[in-house]
Design brief:
The complex is a heterodimer of chains A (204) and B (172). Chain A is α+β, with helices and mostly antiparallel strands and 204 residues long. Chain A is built from 5 helices and 10 strands. In chain A, a hairpin with an 8-residue loop joins strand 7 and strand 8. About 3% of the residues of chain A have low confidence. In chain B, strands 1, 2, 3, 4, 5, 6, 7, 8, 9 and 10 form a 10-stranded mixed sheet that branches. Chain B is 12% helix and 46% strand. The longest helix of chain B has 21 residues. Chain B has one domain: Sandwich (Immunoglobulin-like), CATH 2.60.40. Classes of the chains: A alpha+beta (204), B mainly beta (172). Chains A and B meet through helix 1, helix 2, helix 3, strand 8 and helix 5 of A and strand 2, strand 4, strand 5 and strand 8 of B.
Amino acid sequence: MPIHDRTFVRSRRHALAAAVAGLLAGCGEQKPKAAFHAIDVTGATFGQGFALTDFNGQTRTLADYKGKVVALFFGFTQCPDACPTAMVKLAGIAKALGSDAARLQVVFITVDPERDTPALLREYVPTFDPSFVGLLGTPQQISEVAKSYKAYYSKVKGSTPDSYTIDHSTFTYLYDPQGRLRLMARHEIPAKDLEADIRALLKG
Amino acid sequence: MTRSNSPSRLAARAISFILLFTSGLACAQVTIADPWVRGTVGGMRATGAFMQITSKTDVKLVAAASPVARTVEVHEMAVVDNVMRMREVKSIAVEAGKPVMLEPGGYHVMLIGLDKPLTPGASVPITLTFEGRDGKRQQVQVKAEVRPLNAPAKDGASAKSGAAGAHHMHSK
Protein backbone atom coordinates (compact mmCIF):
# COMPACT_ATOMS: atom_id res chain seq x y z
CA MET A 1 0.00 0.00 0.00
CA PRO A 2 1.18 3.50 -0.70
CA ILE A 3 3.03 5.21 2.04
CA HIS A 4 1.22 8.41 1.37
CA ASP A 5 -2.07 7.32 2.86
CA ARG A 6 -3.85 10.58 3.27
CA THR A 7 -5.62 10.24 6.58
CA PHE A 8 -2.52 8.81 8.08
CA VAL A 9 -0.33 11.58 6.73
CA ARG A 10 -2.79 14.19 7.89
CA SER A 11 -3.03 12.86 11.40
CA ARG A 12 0.72 12.62 11.68
CA ARG A 13 1.11 16.05 10.25
CA HIS A 14 -1.20 17.49 12.86
CA ALA A 15 0.53 15.64 15.62
CA LEU A 16 3.89 16.91 14.42
CA ALA A 17 2.70 20.44 13.88
CA ALA A 18 1.41 20.42 17.44
CA ALA A 19 4.68 19.00 18.69
CA VAL A 20 6.74 21.57 16.82
CA ALA A 21 4.45 24.37 17.99
CA GLY A 22 5.02 23.10 21.50
CA LEU A 23 8.75 23.11 20.98
CA LEU A 24 8.71 26.60 19.62
CA ALA A 25 6.49 27.86 22.43
CA GLY A 26 8.99 26.46 24.87
CA CYS A 27 11.87 28.48 23.54
CA GLY A 28 10.22 31.22 21.54
CA GLU A 29 11.28 34.08 23.74
CA GLN A 30 15.00 33.53 23.42
CA LYS A 31 17.49 34.28 20.68
CA PRO A 32 15.49 34.84 17.53
CA LYS A 33 18.68 36.01 15.83
CA ALA A 34 20.63 32.80 15.46
CA ALA A 35 20.09 31.98 11.83
CA PHE A 36 20.41 28.25 11.78
CA HIS A 37 19.22 26.11 8.91
CA ALA A 38 18.04 23.33 11.20
CA ILE A 39 15.22 23.76 13.71
CA ASP A 40 16.46 25.70 16.71
CA VAL A 41 15.37 23.86 19.84
CA THR A 42 17.63 25.68 22.26
CA GLY A 43 16.20 25.36 25.73
CA ALA A 44 14.38 22.13 24.96
CA THR A 45 13.73 19.92 27.93
CA PHE A 46 13.79 16.66 25.96
CA GLY A 47 16.86 14.91 24.55
CA GLN A 48 18.95 15.63 27.59
CA GLY A 49 21.31 12.72 27.16
CA PHE A 50 21.65 8.97 27.27
CA ALA A 51 23.48 6.15 28.98
CA LEU A 52 24.05 3.36 26.48
CA THR A 53 26.79 0.95 25.51
CA ASP A 54 29.10 1.56 22.58
CA PHE A 55 30.10 -1.17 20.15
CA ASN A 56 33.20 -1.87 22.22
CA GLY A 57 31.17 -2.56 25.32
CA GLN A 58 31.90 0.73 27.05
CA THR A 59 29.14 2.74 28.70
CA ARG A 60 28.69 6.09 27.02
CA THR A 61 26.89 9.20 28.12
CA LEU A 62 26.53 12.57 26.48
CA ALA A 63 29.04 14.00 28.98
CA ASP A 64 31.77 11.84 27.40
CA TYR A 65 31.67 14.10 24.37
CA LYS A 66 31.82 17.46 26.12
CA GLY A 67 33.84 19.93 24.11
CA LYS A 68 32.55 18.49 20.88
CA VAL A 69 29.53 19.12 18.75
CA VAL A 70 27.51 15.92 18.93
CA ALA A 71 25.35 14.87 15.99
CA LEU A 72 23.02 12.10 17.10
CA PHE A 73 20.95 9.92 14.79
CA PHE A 74 18.55 7.04 15.44
CA GLY A 75 18.70 4.32 12.78
CA PHE A 76 19.32 0.67 12.03
CA THR A 77 21.86 -1.11 9.89
CA GLN A 78 19.38 -2.90 7.63
CA CYS A 79 17.95 0.44 6.55
CA PRO A 80 18.80 0.48 2.83
CA ASP A 81 18.34 4.14 2.21
CA ALA A 82 17.68 6.84 4.82
CA CYS A 83 20.32 5.78 7.34
CA PRO A 84 23.26 5.40 4.94
CA THR A 85 22.23 8.65 3.28
CA ALA A 86 22.30 10.49 6.61
CA MET A 87 25.61 8.88 7.61
CA VAL A 88 27.20 9.64 4.24
CA LYS A 89 26.14 13.25 4.60
CA LEU A 90 27.68 13.51 8.07
CA ALA A 91 30.85 11.76 6.88
CA GLY A 92 31.17 14.30 4.06
CA ILE A 93 30.83 17.10 6.58
CA ALA A 94 33.44 15.56 8.88
CA LYS A 95 35.79 15.47 5.92
CA ALA A 96 34.99 19.06 4.97
CA LEU A 97 35.70 20.22 8.53
CA GLY A 98 39.33 19.15 8.24
CA SER A 99 41.13 19.62 11.54
CA ASP A 100 37.87 20.67 13.20
CA ALA A 101 36.49 17.19 12.55
CA ALA A 102 38.11 16.13 15.83
CA ARG A 103 35.53 18.36 17.52
CA LEU A 104 32.56 16.63 15.86
CA GLN A 105 31.21 13.41 17.31
CA VAL A 106 28.64 11.52 15.28
CA VAL A 107 26.60 9.08 17.38
CA PHE A 108 24.42 6.42 15.77
CA ILE A 109 21.89 4.86 18.15
CA THR A 110 20.34 1.68 16.85
CA VAL A 111 16.58 1.29 17.07
CA ASP A 112 17.02 -2.38 16.16
CA PRO A 113 18.62 -3.81 19.30
CA GLU A 114 17.54 -7.33 18.34
CA ARG A 115 19.45 -7.54 15.07
CA ASP A 116 22.13 -4.90 15.51
CA THR A 117 24.80 -6.66 17.52
CA PRO A 118 27.90 -4.88 18.84
CA ALA A 119 29.97 -6.68 16.18
CA LEU A 120 27.69 -5.53 13.40
CA LEU A 121 27.61 -1.93 14.63
CA ARG A 122 31.40 -2.00 14.96
CA GLU A 123 31.66 -2.86 11.28
CA TYR A 124 28.83 -0.70 10.05
CA VAL A 125 29.23 2.66 11.77
CA PRO A 126 32.98 3.27 11.22
CA THR A 127 32.54 2.40 7.54
CA PHE A 128 31.22 5.91 7.12
CA ASP A 129 33.94 7.54 9.21
CA PRO A 130 36.32 5.91 11.69
CA SER A 131 35.42 8.49 14.33
CA PHE A 132 31.70 7.67 14.34
CA VAL A 133 30.33 5.79 17.32
CA GLY A 134 27.48 3.27 17.38
CA LEU A 135 25.47 2.83 20.57
CA LEU A 136 23.15 0.06 21.61
CA GLY A 137 21.19 -1.12 24.60
CA THR A 138 18.45 -3.47 25.60
CA PRO A 139 15.12 -3.01 23.80
CA GLN A 140 13.87 -1.39 27.01
CA GLN A 141 16.80 1.03 27.18
CA ILE A 142 16.47 1.97 23.53
CA SER A 143 12.77 2.56 23.96
CA GLU A 144 13.37 4.82 26.94
CA VAL A 145 16.10 6.82 25.22
CA ALA A 146 14.00 7.26 22.09
CA LYS A 147 11.08 8.41 24.19
CA SER A 148 13.24 10.93 25.98
CA TYR A 149 14.19 12.32 22.56
CA LYS A 150 10.61 12.28 21.28
CA ALA A 151 12.00 10.02 18.58
CA TYR A 152 9.56 7.65 16.94
CA TYR A 153 10.29 4.13 15.77
CA SER A 154 8.08 1.17 15.09
CA LYS A 155 8.62 -2.31 13.74
CA VAL A 156 6.86 -3.19 10.52
CA LYS A 157 6.29 -6.89 9.86
CA GLY A 158 8.08 -8.44 6.91
CA SER A 159 7.39 -11.63 5.02
CA THR A 160 9.47 -13.62 7.52
CA PRO A 161 9.93 -13.07 11.26
CA ASP A 162 13.44 -11.66 10.87
CA SER A 163 12.80 -9.57 7.79
CA TYR A 164 10.89 -6.81 9.54
CA THR A 165 11.73 -3.22 8.79
CA ILE A 166 11.54 -0.24 11.10
CA ASP A 167 9.85 3.09 10.57
CA HIS A 168 11.80 5.73 12.41
CA SER A 169 12.16 9.45 12.75
CA THR A 170 15.06 10.88 10.84
CA PHE A 171 16.07 13.97 12.77
CA THR A 172 19.71 14.56 13.51
CA TYR A 173 20.02 16.06 17.00
CA LEU A 174 22.84 18.55 17.37
CA TYR A 175 24.49 19.50 20.66
CA ASP A 176 26.85 22.39 21.22
CA PRO A 177 30.27 21.77 22.84
CA GLN A 178 28.72 22.55 26.23
CA GLY A 179 26.44 19.55 25.83
CA ARG A 180 23.25 21.51 25.28
CA LEU A 181 20.73 20.30 22.71
CA ARG A 182 20.51 23.12 20.18
CA LEU A 183 19.22 21.94 16.81
CA MET A 184 17.20 19.27 15.09
CA ALA A 185 18.05 18.78 11.44
CA ARG A 186 15.58 17.25 9.03
CA HIS A 187 16.57 14.43 6.72
CA GLU A 188 16.27 16.71 3.70
CA ILE A 189 18.69 19.37 4.98
CA PRO A 190 21.37 20.03 2.36
CA ALA A 191 24.84 18.99 3.49
CA LYS A 192 26.18 22.52 3.14
CA ASP A 193 23.49 23.88 5.47
CA LEU A 194 24.11 21.18 8.05
CA GLU A 195 27.83 21.86 7.77
CA ALA A 196 27.24 25.59 8.31
CA ASP A 197 25.16 24.84 11.41
CA ILE A 198 27.82 22.53 12.83
CA ARG A 199 30.50 25.14 12.18
CA ALA A 200 28.36 27.76 13.92
CA LEU A 201 27.91 25.50 16.95
CA LEU A 202 31.65 24.83 17.03
CA LYS A 203 32.32 28.56 17.12
CA GLY A 204 30.00 28.86 20.10
CA MET B 1 -3.47 -34.37 -51.53
CA THR B 2 -0.72 -31.96 -52.23
CA ARG B 3 0.27 -29.45 -49.67
CA SER B 4 -1.26 -26.23 -50.62
CA ASN B 5 -0.12 -22.86 -49.60
CA SER B 6 -3.64 -21.67 -49.23
CA PRO B 7 -4.06 -18.02 -48.45
CA SER B 8 -5.41 -18.81 -44.99
CA ARG B 9 -2.46 -21.05 -44.20
CA LEU B 10 -0.08 -18.39 -45.40
CA ALA B 11 -1.82 -15.80 -43.31
CA ALA B 12 -1.64 -18.02 -40.24
CA ARG B 13 2.05 -18.54 -40.82
CA ALA B 14 2.63 -14.89 -41.32
CA ILE B 15 0.78 -14.08 -38.14
CA SER B 16 2.66 -16.61 -36.08
CA PHE B 17 5.88 -15.32 -37.54
CA ILE B 18 4.95 -11.77 -36.66
CA LEU B 19 3.98 -12.82 -33.15
CA LEU B 20 7.30 -14.55 -32.70
CA PHE B 21 9.07 -11.52 -33.97
CA THR B 22 7.19 -9.05 -31.82
CA SER B 23 7.53 -11.12 -28.67
CA GLY B 24 11.23 -11.15 -29.38
CA LEU B 25 11.10 -7.42 -29.72
CA ALA B 26 9.18 -7.03 -26.48
CA CYS B 27 12.12 -8.47 -24.60
CA ALA B 28 14.22 -5.58 -25.75
CA GLN B 29 11.65 -2.99 -24.81
CA VAL B 30 12.67 -2.68 -21.19
CA THR B 31 16.15 -1.43 -20.56
CA ILE B 32 17.91 -1.09 -17.25
CA ALA B 33 20.63 1.48 -16.78
CA ASP B 34 23.17 1.80 -13.99
CA PRO B 35 22.02 -1.02 -11.72
CA TRP B 36 23.82 -1.04 -8.37
CA VAL B 37 23.55 -2.56 -4.95
CA ARG B 38 24.60 -0.97 -1.69
CA GLY B 39 27.35 -3.13 -0.26
CA THR B 40 27.07 -4.70 3.17
CA VAL B 41 29.45 -5.39 6.01
CA GLY B 42 29.59 -8.21 8.49
CA GLY B 43 26.27 -9.59 9.55
CA MET B 44 24.02 -7.21 7.61
CA ARG B 45 21.23 -9.36 6.24
CA ALA B 46 19.57 -6.91 3.89
CA THR B 47 20.33 -4.13 1.47
CA GLY B 48 18.84 -2.22 -1.45
CA ALA B 49 19.38 -2.28 -5.20
CA PHE B 50 18.93 0.79 -7.36
CA MET B 51 18.66 1.37 -11.12
CA GLN B 52 16.95 3.28 -13.88
CA ILE B 53 14.19 1.52 -15.81
CA THR B 54 13.04 2.61 -19.25
CA SER B 55 10.45 0.91 -21.42
CA LYS B 56 9.18 1.49 -24.92
CA THR B 57 5.73 0.32 -23.88
CA ASP B 58 3.72 0.70 -20.68
CA VAL B 59 4.81 -2.00 -18.27
CA LYS B 60 4.81 -2.69 -14.55
CA LEU B 61 7.66 -4.09 -12.53
CA VAL B 62 5.87 -6.87 -10.66
CA ALA B 63 8.59 -9.08 -9.21
CA ALA B 64 12.30 -9.41 -8.62
CA ALA B 65 14.55 -12.28 -7.65
CA SER B 66 18.22 -12.83 -6.95
CA PRO B 67 20.29 -15.86 -5.99
CA VAL B 68 22.06 -13.86 -3.26
CA ALA B 69 18.90 -13.20 -1.25
CA ARG B 70 16.23 -15.43 0.16
CA THR B 71 13.54 -12.84 -0.38
CA VAL B 72 13.45 -10.00 -2.88
CA GLU B 73 10.81 -7.32 -2.70
CA VAL B 74 10.09 -4.03 -4.41
CA HIS B 75 9.92 -1.26 -1.84
CA GLU B 76 9.10 2.36 -1.64
CA MET B 77 10.76 4.52 0.94
CA ALA B 78 9.63 7.98 1.90
CA VAL B 79 10.26 10.41 4.67
CA VAL B 80 6.85 11.71 5.64
CA ASP B 81 6.74 14.28 8.41
CA ASN B 82 10.30 13.40 9.34
CA VAL B 83 9.58 9.72 9.73
CA MET B 84 11.21 7.25 7.34
CA ARG B 85 8.75 4.63 6.18
CA MET B 86 9.46 1.74 3.93
CA ARG B 87 6.79 -0.48 2.45
CA GLU B 88 6.57 -3.22 -0.10
CA VAL B 89 4.76 -2.13 -3.26
CA LYS B 90 2.89 -4.55 -5.47
CA SER B 91 4.27 -3.03 -8.62
CA ILE B 92 5.95 0.01 -10.09
CA ALA B 93 4.40 1.45 -13.23
CA VAL B 94 6.83 2.29 -16.02
CA GLU B 95 5.18 4.40 -18.69
CA ALA B 96 6.43 4.20 -22.24
CA GLY B 97 9.42 6.45 -22.74
CA LYS B 98 9.46 7.77 -19.19
CA PRO B 99 12.44 6.53 -17.19
CA VAL B 100 11.67 5.49 -13.63
CA MET B 101 14.43 5.87 -11.10
CA LEU B 102 14.95 3.37 -8.35
CA GLU B 103 17.14 5.52 -6.17
CA PRO B 104 17.73 6.44 -2.54
CA GLY B 105 14.77 8.48 -1.38
CA GLY B 106 12.29 6.56 -3.52
CA TYR B 107 11.93 3.05 -4.84
CA HIS B 108 14.41 0.24 -4.42
CA VAL B 109 14.64 -3.49 -4.86
CA MET B 110 15.13 -4.89 -1.37
CA LEU B 111 17.38 -7.92 -1.01
CA ILE B 112 16.48 -9.69 2.23
CA GLY B 113 18.16 -12.67 3.82
CA LEU B 114 21.69 -12.34 2.48
CA ASP B 115 23.94 -15.28 3.17
CA LYS B 116 27.17 -13.36 2.98
CA PRO B 117 28.43 -9.80 2.74
CA LEU B 118 28.23 -8.08 -0.65
CA THR B 119 31.63 -6.57 -1.21
CA PRO B 120 32.29 -3.59 -3.48
CA GLY B 121 33.24 -4.58 -6.99
CA ALA B 122 31.24 -7.80 -6.98
CA SER B 123 28.17 -8.08 -9.14
CA VAL B 124 24.76 -9.30 -8.12
CA PRO B 125 22.46 -10.97 -10.65
CA ILE B 126 18.87 -9.78 -10.38
CA THR B 127 15.94 -11.00 -12.46
CA LEU B 128 13.19 -8.45 -12.91
CA THR B 129 9.73 -9.45 -14.08
CA PHE B 130 7.67 -6.93 -16.01
CA GLU B 131 4.06 -7.18 -17.00
CA GLY B 132 2.68 -5.45 -20.08
CA ARG B 133 -0.82 -4.04 -20.50
CA ASP B 134 -1.83 -7.30 -22.15
CA GLY B 135 -0.86 -9.19 -19.01
CA LYS B 136 2.12 -10.79 -20.71
CA ARG B 137 5.19 -11.10 -18.60
CA GLN B 138 8.80 -10.74 -19.56
CA GLN B 139 11.96 -11.12 -17.56
CA VAL B 140 15.00 -8.93 -17.70
CA GLN B 141 18.32 -10.01 -16.23
CA VAL B 142 20.65 -7.42 -14.80
CA LYS B 143 24.00 -7.60 -13.13
CA ALA B 144 24.11 -4.96 -10.45
CA GLU B 145 27.47 -3.62 -9.39
CA VAL B 146 28.12 -3.65 -5.66
CA ARG B 147 29.10 -0.18 -4.46
CA PRO B 148 30.47 0.63 -1.03
CA LEU B 149 28.06 0.88 1.88
CA ASN B 150 29.03 4.52 2.14
CA ALA B 151 28.42 5.27 -1.53
CA PRO B 152 26.76 8.65 -2.02
CA ALA B 153 23.07 8.63 -2.77
CA LYS B 154 23.64 9.33 -6.43
CA ASP B 155 26.38 8.11 -8.67
CA GLY B 156 29.05 10.76 -8.86
CA ALA B 157 27.14 13.08 -6.58
CA SER B 158 29.07 14.16 -3.54
CA ALA B 159 27.55 14.62 -0.13
CA LYS B 160 28.06 18.31 -0.78
CA SER B 161 25.29 18.36 -3.33
CA GLY B 162 22.84 18.12 -0.54
CA ALA B 163 19.66 16.19 0.11
CA ALA B 164 20.17 13.84 -2.74
CA GLY B 165 17.21 11.76 -3.62
CA ALA B 166 14.91 13.25 -1.06
CA HIS B 167 13.50 16.01 -3.21
CA HIS B 168 10.66 14.15 -4.91
CA MET B 169 9.16 12.47 -1.91
CA HIS B 170 6.00 14.52 -1.73
CA SER B 171 5.32 14.45 -5.41
CA LYS B 172 2.35 12.12 -5.10
